[in-house]
Amino acid sequence: MTTLAVTGYMDLTDDTVPVVRAELDALLAPYASDGLVGLSCIAKGVDSLFAQAVLEAGGRLVVVVPSRDYRKRKVTPDHAAVFDRLTAAASEVLVMPHETATREAYEAANGELLRRADRAGLPVDAVWPEGAARRG
Fold first, then answer.
1. Domain range holding 90?
2. More confident residue, 47 or 121
């Protein structure tokens, strides 16, 4: 079993989404038969694309939510359905022990991703294919 964590950009352009998703699919493919576990905070953008790719590869998704109020205060209306679907599909949802989504809550969530990931601390795969772009 291999456990991988993700963190990435939120503000991808519409044209970038399928390109990044294809790269994530290719990156995860070698782990699919090994009992893949994906860790994600499922924020809009790369985090959610990764979570979807993990599930579609037959892997197990673990969601790390930074705070108790994260869904209410930070998940935008255009991302709410995806957030809810991924949370429901997760084999585990860990809500960090923070009431509000503060810097400390995000740091705790990121720390949990690193603590649980098999490849954390050394190898990093940067998924930013040619032609990818961010909004703004």
1. 3-116
2. 47
